[in-house]
Amino acid sequence: MDTVALLVQLISGAVGGNIAGNLLKKLSLGTVGNSIVGILGGGLGAVLLNALGLGTGPGGMDVGSVIGSIAGGGVGGGVLLAIVGAIRNAIGSRPN
Protein backbone atom coordinates (compact mmCIF):
# COMPACT_ATOMS: atom_id res chain seq x y z
CA MET A 1 0.00 0.00 0.00
CA ASP A 2 1.34 3.42 -0.94
CA THR A 3 2.04 5.64 2.07
CA VAL A 4 0.68 8.76 0.40
CA ALA A 5 -2.57 7.00 -0.55
CA LEU A 6 -2.95 5.74 3.03
CA LEU A 7 -2.34 9.23 4.39
CA VAL A 8 -4.96 10.64 2.01
CA GLN A 9 -7.45 8.01 3.18
CA LEU A 10 -6.76 8.69 6.86
CA ILE A 11 -7.25 12.43 6.41
CA SER A 12 -10.38 11.98 4.33
CA GLY A 13 -11.62 9.50 6.95
CA ALA A 14 -11.31 12.19 9.62
CA VAL A 15 -13.19 14.62 7.38
CA GLY A 16 -15.83 11.99 6.59
CA GLY A 17 -16.28 11.21 10.28
CA ASN A 18 -16.83 14.88 11.09
CA ILE A 19 -19.25 15.35 8.19
CA ALA A 20 -21.22 12.29 9.32
CA GLY A 21 -21.19 13.61 12.89
CA ASN A 22 -22.61 16.94 11.72
CA LEU A 23 -25.29 15.25 9.60
CA LEU A 24 -26.21 12.65 12.23
CA LYS A 25 -26.30 14.75 15.41
CA LYS A 26 -27.61 11.88 17.56
CA LEU A 27 -24.63 9.71 16.61
CA SER A 28 -21.96 12.40 16.95
CA LEU A 29 -19.07 11.78 19.35
CA GLY A 30 -17.84 15.38 19.36
CA THR A 31 -15.19 16.80 17.06
CA VAL A 32 -12.26 14.86 18.51
CA GLY A 33 -14.23 11.60 18.78
CA ASN A 34 -15.57 11.98 15.23
CA SER A 35 -12.03 12.61 13.96
CA ILE A 36 -10.52 9.62 15.76
CA VAL A 37 -13.25 7.22 14.66
CA GLY A 38 -13.09 8.71 11.15
CA ILE A 39 -9.32 8.11 10.95
CA LEU A 40 -9.84 4.51 12.02
CA GLY A 41 -12.63 4.13 9.47
CA GLY A 42 -10.46 5.63 6.75
CA GLY A 43 -7.70 3.14 7.58
CA LEU A 44 -10.16 0.25 7.55
CA GLY A 45 -11.54 1.52 4.26
CA ALA A 46 -8.01 1.47 2.81
CA VAL A 47 -7.44 -2.10 3.97
CA LEU A 48 -10.80 -3.26 2.59
CA LEU A 49 -10.27 -1.56 -0.76
CA ASN A 50 -6.85 -3.17 -1.11
CA ALA A 51 -8.23 -6.57 -0.09
CA LEU A 52 -10.88 -6.25 -2.80
CA GLY A 53 -8.23 -5.22 -5.32
CA LEU A 54 -9.70 -1.74 -5.69
CA GLY A 55 -6.93 0.16 -3.89
CA THR A 56 -4.10 2.05 -5.47
CA GLY A 57 -1.39 -0.11 -6.93
CA PRO A 58 2.33 0.65 -6.82
CA GLY A 59 2.84 4.21 -7.99
CA GLY A 60 -0.92 4.65 -8.37
CA MET A 61 -1.15 8.36 -7.70
CA ASP A 62 -3.12 9.36 -10.77
CA VAL A 63 -6.26 11.47 -10.44
CA GLY A 64 -8.59 8.47 -10.37
CA SER A 65 -6.61 6.78 -7.59
CA VAL A 66 -6.54 9.93 -5.47
CA ILE A 67 -10.28 10.45 -5.90
CA GLY A 68 -10.85 6.78 -5.03
CA SER A 69 -8.71 7.15 -1.91
CA ILE A 70 -10.61 10.25 -0.82
CA ALA A 71 -13.98 8.60 -1.44
CA GLY A 72 -12.97 5.33 0.26
CA GLY A 73 -11.56 7.09 3.30
CA GLY A 74 -14.48 9.47 3.64
CA VAL A 75 -17.08 6.74 3.31
CA GLY A 76 -15.16 4.45 5.66
CA GLY A 77 -14.92 7.21 8.27
CA GLY A 78 -18.60 8.07 8.00
CA VAL A 79 -19.77 4.47 8.15
CA LEU A 80 -17.62 3.60 11.15
CA LEU A 81 -18.80 6.74 12.96
CA ALA A 82 -22.44 5.74 12.36
CA ILE A 83 -21.76 2.23 13.68
CA VAL A 84 -19.86 3.39 16.79
CA GLY A 85 -22.39 6.16 17.49
CA ALA A 86 -25.32 3.74 17.21
CA ILE A 87 -23.61 1.25 19.53
CA ARG A 88 -22.82 4.01 22.03
CA ASN A 89 -26.43 5.21 21.97
CA ALA A 90 -27.75 1.66 22.40
CA ILE A 91 -25.50 1.02 25.38
CA GLY A 92 -26.22 4.43 26.90
CA SER A 93 -30.00 4.05 26.65
CA ARG A 94 -30.14 0.66 28.36
CA PRO A 95 -32.37 0.67 31.48
CA ASN A 96 -30.64 -0.12 34.77
Low-pLDDT residue intervals, each spanning 5 or more residues: none
Order of helices and strands: HHH
Mean of all residue-level pLDDT scores: 83
- What is the β-strand count? 0
Major β-sheet profile = none
How much is the radius of gyration in Å?
Answer: 14 Å
What's the N-to-C terminus distance?
46 Å
Proportion in helices: over 70%
Structural class: mainly alpha
Quaternary structure classification: single chain
Principal-axes shape call:
elongated
Supply the number of helical segments: 3
Fraction of residues in β-strands: under 5%
Q: Could you give the topology of this structure?
A:
Blueprint: H1 3-23, H2 30-51, H3 63-92
Helix pairs in contact: 1-2, 1-3, 2-3
Structural description of this entry:
With about 100 residues, this protein is an all-alpha fold. The protein has a domain at about 1-55. It is about 75% helix and about 0% strand. The termini are far apart.
